[in-house]
Structure formats: structure tokens, C-alpha cells
Amino acid sequence: MTDKPLALVTGAAQGIGYACAEALARDGARLILADINSDGVKAAATSLGDGAVGMICDMGNPAQIEAMFDKIEAEHGPVEILVNNAGIAMPGDFLETSLEDFQRVIDINLTGTFLSVQRAAKTMIANKIEGAIVNMSSINAVVAIPSIPAYCASKGGVMQLTKATSLALAPHNIRVNAVGPGSIDTEMMAGVNANPEAMKMVMSRTPLQRIGEPSDVAEAVAFLASKRAKYITGETIFVDGGRLGMNYTC
Fold first, then answer.
1. Could you say which of 164, 215, 224, 235 is the most buried, measured as most Cβ atoms within 10 Å of its Cβ?
2. DSSP line for 132-178
3. Distance between CA atoms of 76 and 19, rounded to whole angstroms?
4. CA neighbours within 13 Å on the CB side: how many for 49?
5. Quick check: is 231 catalytic?
6. pLDDT digits (tens, 9 = 90+) for 85-96
7. CA 250 remoteness from chain centre
8. What's the confidence (pLDDT) of residue 1?
9. 112-126 and 149-169 are packed helices; what angle lies between their axes, rounded to 10 degrees?
């Protein structure tokens, strides 16, 4: 890596993605932010400053992913740190979930992550870059919620994809890890935050008795992307306030 490595964070217009970009900037990275929200990602890049660049990309669209990497490499150089954060949930009744909705979640959360890892890795290998890739999984890779079957399937896939690609890329000294958030104070949690009964249920399964902050996830991502984690690959760190350690669900 260079003294100021180039980091690409997807889904970076807000929430966890934006927090990841902030954390990587503090560690000295140059930033490329990608998001389908054009106004949001441009505002995020302006807010972060220091040369941060906002790019529009639908991570469920293979052609857009390829074009994004081509543009980054032509204008800024090869990506040395990749954070695959973009994701959607699309909750609803399992029996009423359409194939179209199921596939859209898989396309963005899992297929988009696969394509992004593969594309970044090819350039890292070609340039002999000992890069770091961090994927965004979830505690729902292990536990499950019946109203988000596609999300659960996609995040389980991300965890296994992380393991498989870490083995494939280890000979090139490219590390691949993941972070699995629990209940984090983002737009996805807005409905829960506004519902006292829903919040009571969340707290009953959260030993640390608080909702996580995006920065809690971002610090784990920044650690895995750094040389401090130089002997860690293929792992998923769960940032969940202790939830997965409990011996019951509710």
C-alpha cells in the first residue's frame, strides 16, 4: 500500500457506509464514495472533504460496477482498500415476497459484493498490491428474522463468500474479512426506534443494553482494513452488543 491508500466504500451516502468513510479518512486513506443516491453521495463527499470523491453506482447492476472501477482506476489509481457496504432489506411477509424483490436483494447484497471483490482483486494482483477487503455481513447471517428472508440469505452468503475469497486471495497477500452488525441506529432501524414495544424487544436480546452506533461498526471495519489486522483474514467480526452469545431468541 501507498502512504495514503485509495479506499472505496459502497453505500457511503449515509449511515454505516458514511461512518466507515470517516474512520478510514482518520486512518489516512484517500476516499471514493459510491452510492445509488446521487445527491446523498455527493453531499457526503463534500462533507468529508480532503479530496473525497462521490460516484453514482447501483451495486445491483454489473455493468455499473465494472464502469465504476474503470473510472476509478483511470482517474485515481487502483483501489487498495475496498469496503462493500451497500445493501438493502425489503422486509415483508415471506409468503407474499415476490421473486423480483428477493432477487433484487440478492443482486445488491451478495452478487454486487462478489463482483466488486473480484474486480478489485484482479487489479490488486496486477499491481502487486497487498490490499484489504471488508464485506458487510450481519448477525442475520447466523440468526434470522422471518420478514427478511432474502436479506438473511444474502448476508449468510456474504459471510461464506468472505471465507472462500480469503482463501483464493491469500497467496497474493490480499486479506478479506467481514463485519456483522447487530441492531445499529441507521435508517433501517428508524421504525424500531419509534416503537417502544419494538425497542423493548430489541433491548431484551442486547446484553449491552443499547443500540449500536454506525461508528461502532466503522471502527471494526477500519481495524480490519489496517495493518493492525495484518494476520487476520477470512473472519467475520460481529458488532452486536453481545446478542449472538445469548442462549435464546425473542
1. 224
2. EEEEE--GGGTS--TT-HHHHHHHHHHHHHHHHHHHHHGGGT-EEEE
3. 22
4. 2
5. no
6. 999 999 999 999
7. 26
8. 42
9. 20
